[in-house]
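Structure first, sequence second, as always.
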């Protein structure tokens, strides 16, 4: 035992000696089974431990462990462990209510059990779908019922770089040209999806119709609803946007390399 702990114990014992002179405190000591003439910190601590051990049973242990799991739900940041801890806590409090005869407590947690179980199943299903979507190759056919058809003729400009963007387009027929980089967009490809991600929703390129055809359009507001409701589309859209950005980077690197070779050839001549 260290000097600091001895000093602390001595201070507590002196405080208890002064408190023992109070009549009300004496009555409390007698009620918990402590001699008022022999009041020490160790005596009180030992007696409290004895009282706790005498009153601990299986029901109270269930309540204690259930409270610990409930505290874990408050500290947990992710939903799946939170729901799992919530179910364990609910089962333990139900056991406490049944063993201790606390019927309102039992019924309350009995009602909470299917709610937590349902939410856990929903979250696990959502995670499974997200993993499938991240690994699979998804078609945009299921999105078509949410889109509106629009026709364009040769020479029509669908949008220009820097204009406000409020919709994404899926080509159905015809041909379209990204004028800044000279890339043709064939049927079955998306256009205008990067405007959904850019600050201020601005068009990043201009697109012109070079062969009359139809497109399907969907507004960004509707797209945002589907994005949050369907994890498959969310992951698909992220992959699509990432692929488009990587293609743009590769194209720019190719242009830079071509210009570098051209410049070197000119210097050699």
């Amino acid at each position: 035992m260290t000097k600091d702990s001895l000093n602390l114990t001595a201070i507590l014992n002196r405080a208890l000696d002064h408190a023992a002179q109070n009549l009300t405190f004496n009555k409390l000591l007698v009620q918990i089974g402590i001699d008022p003439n022999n009041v020490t910190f160790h005596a009180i601590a030992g007696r409290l431990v004895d009282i706790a051990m005498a009153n601990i049973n299986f029901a109270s242990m269930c309540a204690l462990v259930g409270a610990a799991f409930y505290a874990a739900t408050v500290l947990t940041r992710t939903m799946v462990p939170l729901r799992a801890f919530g179910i364990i806590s609910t089962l333990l409090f139900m056991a406490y209510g049944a063993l201790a005869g606390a019927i309102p407590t039992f019924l309350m947690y009995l009602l909470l059990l299917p709610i937590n179980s349902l939410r856990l199943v929903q979250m696990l299903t959502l995670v499974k779908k997200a993993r499938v979507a991240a690994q699979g190759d998804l078609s945009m056919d299921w999105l078509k019922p949410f889109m509106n058809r629009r026709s364009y003729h040769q020479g029509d400009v669908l949008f220009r770089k820097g204009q406000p963007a409020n919709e994404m387009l899926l080509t159905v027929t015809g041909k379209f040209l990204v004028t800044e980089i000279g890339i043709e967009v064939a049927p079955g490809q998306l256009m205008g999806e990067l405007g959904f991600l850019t600050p201020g929703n601005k068009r990043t390129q201009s697109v012109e119709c070079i062969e009359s055809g139809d497109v399907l359009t969907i507004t960004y507001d509707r797209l945002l609803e589907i994005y949050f409701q369907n994890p498959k589309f969310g992951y698909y859209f992220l992959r699509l946007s990432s692929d488009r950005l990587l293609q743009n980077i590769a194209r720019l690197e190719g242009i830079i390399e071509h210009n570098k070779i051209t410049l070197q050839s000119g210097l050699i001549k």
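Margin note: The chain has three domains: 3-55, 58-135, 141-261.
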